[in-house]
Amino acid sequence: MDFCSLPKIDLHCHLDGSVRPETIIDLANDQNIELPSQDVEVIRNLMIAPETCVDLKEYLTRFELPLQVMQTKKSLERISYEVFEDAAKENVKYLELRFAPLLHVRNGLTVEQIISSVVKGMKRAELDYDIRGNYILCILRTMPKDDIPQVIEAGAKYIGKGVVAFDLAGAELAGFCHDFVKEAKAARKKGFHVTIHAGEQGNGQNVQDAIELLKAERIGHGIHIIDHSGGFKAVRNGNVGLETCPSSNVQTKAVQDIESHPAKRFYKQGLAVTINTDNRTVSNTTMTQEVQKVCEQFYLSQKDYVAIYLNSVEQSFASDAIKQELRNYIDEL
């Protein structure tokens, strides 16, 4: 397979984990923020998580530097544009980018200003490149719950105009879903789709809870349903999409190595598996690399890739019209 030319879809990618190191330097200088170095390679190394991370917490420390410069409308629009640009240049046809608006309020931006800025950057990229996209709004599970309604309210104004879904992310504790039933219901009522990070560091029960309690339509990662029958059945019976992120899962020790990643097993068992980057910079990866890694490691054919691509089409939160556009790309293979 020519992995570069294959059409691709990325449904699980974080904005703040996908910033160009060069952009960090430019924005820091523009905002008078002192950096450890002006050397792009030094900054790049500070942003990339090692493959030997102890756990997810260590992985998440790599987001601290990008967040320093992502506190203005100009920087958010630029970074949004650039992530879509980078994806488009490797033949990603559709990208659902996610971020936590409340991480960008340090300098006084409102949540609506933050959301409008990233959507503006995305829309500009859609005009310049052959790519379509949407945004998923994340809530970090460790944040004060009182702040969640303002994200839902501000985001609801952009439903169908660049925002499609609600997500819970960050450190994963057992049983967390019980604490967010009210918030997920409020989001659904406003028209948000729901995808939840679950079963990455926690057990499969979190996946089952996300589907049964929060009505999740997709699951971010979901690795640990491999040893939890309830979580597995909830995913299979509900045709819930699994947003697998192979490189990231190795780094965070959700799996020990790529050989032990359950993506192929899940695919062969008929689950709606998708392949994604998670964080282009922090995981030092691209969609091309992720697709190639999975196909070569698990001896998947082009027919298998087409099936996974079509899973991504069906599991996306895109409009019916865009879904048909995405199917057309694979018909041309």
TrEMBL record:
Binds 1 zinc ion per subunit. GO terms for cellular component: cytosol. Pfam families: A_deaminase (PF00962). Its cofactor is Zn(2+). The active site is at E200. Gene3D superfamilies: Metal-dependent hydrolases (3.20.20.140). Substrate binds at H14, D16, G170. The record marks H221 as: Important for catalytic activity. It comes from the Bacteria. GO terms for biological process: adenosine catabolic process; hypoxanthine salvage; inosine biosynthetic process; nucleotide metabolic process; purine ribonucleoside monophosphate biosynthetic process. Residues 7-332 form the Adenosine deaminase domain. SUPFAM superfamilies: Metallo-dependent hydrolases. Its EC number is 3.5.4.4. Belongs to the metallo-dependent hydrolases superfamily. Adenosine and AMP deaminases family. Adenosine deaminase subfamily. This is Adenosine deaminase.
